[in-house]
Design a protein that fits this description.
This protein is about 15% helix and about 35% strand. With about 110 residues, the chain is mainly beta. Strands 1-2 form a two-stranded antiparallel ribbon. A two-stranded antiparallel ribbon has the order 3-4. The two termini are about 35 Å apart.
């Protein structure tokens, strides 16, 4: 795909190890063979060993009626561990859903 960056004198590049361009993108292949991008490796939140992809959480939250916009990001618990946080913009008529309603979107 590429051998390096234009006019770069670097012989070894992290993004081009052994001739492969490493984008850091995470993907999954569905049963039909289609490739779906699901996030980026550097965006993964490590919650006590559980790997959380913010885009997947955003998709679940965005499916809730009344949610206009959502951003999921890593925060820190007072213990120092990473936690998942979300900033949500909701419509004026938004009604906070019960946990069961959120779980049905997963």
């Amino acid at each position: 795909m590429m051998s390096g960056y234009y006019k770069s004198n670097c012989r070894e590049l992290e993004t081009v190890p052994q001739g492969w361009f490493n984008t850091g993108d995470l993907a999954k292949i569905d049963p039909s063979g289609a490739i779906h991008l699901v996030g980026r490796a550097k965006e993964i939140i490590d919650v006590s060993g559980l790997k959380v992809i913010p885009k997947e959480v955003e998709d679940v939250l965005a499916a809730i009626d009344g949610v206009i916009e959502v951003a999921v990001y890593a925060g820190k618990h007072r213990s120092g561990c990473d936690i998942v946080k979300a900033a949500i913009v909701a419509s004026r008529s938004f009604q906070y859903p019960k946990c069961e309603a959120i779980a049905s979107n997963v």
